[in-house]
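Here is an idea for our session: we take a single protein and study its fold together. To get us started, please write out a protein record for me. Start from the sequence, derive the backbone structure tokens from it, and show both lines together. Go ahead whenever you are ready, and we will take it from there:
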Amino acid sequence: MSDGITVDKNKKADFSMPYDFPIRVYETDLKKKSYGLNSWHWHDEFQFCVVTSGCVHMTVLDQEYCLKQGEGIFINTGCVHMSRSQQNCPAQYLCVNIHPKMLTFFRGSVMEQKYFQPFIQNKKVQAVVLRPCLCWQKQIIDLQFEISGLMKEKSRGYELEIYIRMMELWKLLILNTDITDTTAAPFLRYGEVKKIITYIHENYGRHISLEEMAQQIHMSKGGCCRIFKKMLNCTISDYLAEYRIQKSIELLENTDLTVTQIAYETGFSSVSYFIKKFREIVHRTPGEYRGADK
């Protein structure tokens, strides 16, 4: 039950869910990711996660949450997020992804209008941390494991059993999360951030200028920098460097390309700068990393 997730050019994750029962349960092992990082992505499905081993740092937009074994998180639909392990230590978490149409019944229904749309469309509810010390949150965590078990066994009527638990899970979440605050939510520019991330992921292998990026996504240079920093709490240049290092690690692990070739393949202007940034982020040189990986 590994993740096996594909991500399109817009960094939207594709979970290949069945149309008639769009729920997916899978496990993410951060040790198998490049330097323990599951990079920025998003999806239409809302997501429940629970850490099964180690410690996971889950970042949803500009908020980072440190989750220990047994703790979990709800991530709302469409929210850009990433996860990483603590100092590249072993860490795993279970995910239950549910497409919104599983809960809306039919357009205009009481269930949709009263118990679903007000919550899912509330931009203040980007994430809800789930800790077992609170009874209702522990119940949600336990329900995730029950759904996972049912999905593995697939015994007669398992879809009904999963659906019952999914509705119980959703009831616990919405009845215990306050969404009555009427103060205006900050204007969150998800679309612009997704465009910047997409542009970086499509062009990281060559020189990228901020001016060119801004023109391509129809924003000012200052606007790009301000929105990205505000939403993801890091600069565009820092994110670009980290993404290039992530891609270089994939090449170090899976190809026989030299360090020099990898430096230029991943968009670095010189080998010395590549080695410098690699050491800053990974705390060893590319050669040392490749040697330790063998």
